[in-house]
Design goal:
This protein is of the alpha+beta class. It is 67% helix and 6% strand. The protein contains 21 helices and 7 strands. A hairpin with a 6-residue loop joins strand 3 and strand 4. Helix 10 packs across helix 18. The longest helix is centred in the middle third of the chain and has 51 residues. The termini are far apart.
Length: 517
């Protein structure tokens, strides 16, 4: 393939001169340069958007707006300004020229030096199933050295062959290649080809369609399982702080969701400051927000425990009502400061996009939340098992009166535990800001599900919280396609109620003198 031609402008200018045959030769000359910068001009020519100015015979891409034409440079795409429609003349094309243009575009893209351009061209032909591109695809396949691009070219050729009058053997080979591809787009190609197929080819297509549909059904189950794990990780993040608070203190904290909300708004504030003052740090904004969200939500949690909850121990109904009132107060405070509308929290570049694993589509932000939730769980378990604070907290969980008699300051443990649980909810808000709307009502979306996870898994048991979150997440995603989102949640709630009737302490009940007394 030729290198980029510095005289490309001259070759494009030749499109304005001579007959249709002369223009065909000019198109071939442009294709021979191998210069992908000519693609916009050729595309515009095929779409009737290429003009020549009457004054200086310059070639421009134009958008006809009636009395005027907006003009653009055919190579750089720079705007050249608006001219009267009478000042330019459209370059006409016929069917032969359109075929030449398709061939030239294929040569400039399928034979490009850039593998990404070749891959995109193969994808475009796969979608269009252009039978006229088969010969050019054969040339591109013979020259291709990148295996992934070569496979894409072969699949594009197979789609084009099934849309062409090629012989039976080629079409059967194309069907086999589509069956190997085995995804939804391959199924669409085969279904399209089935309408005109007959005899052995029809039988081969039906066999391939059945195999793809069976494979896709299995991949659909795997995709639902992944969605369930993703939802489970979200529930785990929202519930893990509640698990230790409820387990140690026995407090039904209806303001736990608002701690999640505070973490999300902390993320918004951090990003807002970075956008205006230090935009180069935006990709690090979530890492900066994590400790700040923990401190903000944890501090608010300690204030709530010291100011309100410490006076209501042993009175669960009053504690529930008090924390519900605090939740409303926090919601209204945030609504007064930030307004009732959703706030935008951006996604860093490294969390944007998705990748394919077989037929699974996995987004980077969801994968990051799954990993992050497991890391938070692991760190929390290390704190509980390997630190002095964790030892005191577990002592208070198992037998509060005995721990108090051994000199453990249970009031201090209560305050720090509530602060720890609230802080974890805050960092959960950082993660949830990437997948949910940041608004004053953010926490209310998760509080009920969080309590279900904690009660189902076993109050105060972190392993139970993990298993409960994943179980409920996966079960919910498998119920939704059959029962719908609302009915699915109702069915799940009924199942949990029935389960709690059999095992009131959940799947993993804590053991201890206080529990068993």
């Amino acid at each position: 393939m030729a290198a980029q031609d510095p005289a490309l402008q001259d070759k494009i200018s030749a499109l304005a001169d001579g007959s249709y045959s002369d223009r065909a030769k000019a198109i071939q000359a442009i294709a021979a340069t191998g210069d992908a910068r000519a693609v916009p001009a050729l595309e515009a020519l095929g779409e009737g958007l290429l003009f020549v100015t009457k004054s200086d015979k310059a070639i421009v891409i134009g958008l006809d707006e009636g009395a005027t034409v907006e003009t653009f440079d055919p190579i750089s795409g720079d705007a050249l300004g608006s001219v009267p429609s009478g000042a330019v003349e459209k370059i006409k094309v016929n069917n032969r020229l359109r075929r030449e243009i398709r061939s030239a575009l294929g040569a400039l893209t399928l034979l490009s030096d850039d593998p990404k351009v070749r891959l995109a061209a193969a994808g475009a032909i796969f979608k269009s199933k252009d039978a006229d591109a088969i010969d050019l695809l054969d040339t591109a396949i013979a020259k291709e050295t990148v295996e992934a691009v070569k496979l894409a070219l072969q699949e594009a050729r197979a789609a084009a062959v099934l849309n062409s009058p090629r012989d039976m053997a080629e079409k059967q080979a194309a069907v086999a290649l589509m069956a190997d591809r085995g995804n939804q787009s391959a199924l669409a190609v085969l279904l399209n080809a089935r309408g005109s197929a007959e005899g052995p080819l029809l039988a081969d297509i039906d066999t391939a369609i059945a195999a793809i549909q069976k494979s896709l059904a299995v991949w659909d189950l795997a995709q639902n399982a992944w969605y369930g794990v993703s939802l489970g990780s979200v529930l785990l993040l929202a519930a893990i702080g509640l698990a230790i608070t409820f387990g140690v203190m026995g407090v039904i904290n209806m303001a736990h969701g608002e701690m999640v909300m505070l973490g999300a708004y902390t993320t918004f504030i951090v990003q807002d400051i970075i956008r205006t003052s230090m935009p180069g740090l935006f990709d690090y904004s979530l890492l900066i927000a994590l400790p700040l969200a923990f401190l903000v939500a944890g501090s608010v949690g300690v204030v709530i425990e010291r100011g309100v909850i410490r006076w209501l121990y042993g009175r669960p109904l009053e504690t529930l009502l008090a924390t519900w009132g605090i939740a409303l107060l926090l919601q209204q405070t945030v609504r007064s400061i930030f307004g009732p509308t959703n706030r935008e929290v951006g996604t860093p570049d490294f969390l944007a996009g998705a990748f394919q694993l077989g037929q699974l589509t996995i987004t980077y932000n969801r994968l990051a939340i799954v990993i992050f939730s497991l890391v938070v769980l692991a760190v929390l378990m290390l704190v509980l098992r390997k630190t002095s604070f964790g030892l005191r907290m577990r002592a208070v969980t198992q037998n509060r009166r005995m721990a108090n008699s051994m000199g453990i300051k249970t009031n201090w443990v209560d305050a720090m535990t509530f602060g720890l649980g609230s802080g974890i909810a805050g960092i959960a808000g950082v993660a949830l800001s990437q997948i949910d709307n940041v608004s004053p009502n953010l926490g209310q979306s998760y509080i009920i599900d969080s309590f279900l996870v904690v009660v189902f898994g076993g109050v105060g048991n972190l392993w139970g919280t993990l298993v409960g979150a994943m179980t409920l997440g996966i079960a919910n995603k498998f119920l939704e396609p059959f029962a719908g989102a609302v009915l699915g949640k109702i069915i799940l709630l009924v199942c949990i109620i029935l389960f709690i009737q059999k095992r009131p302490r959940g799947m993993f009940a804590l053991k201890g003198r206080a529990v068993e007394s």
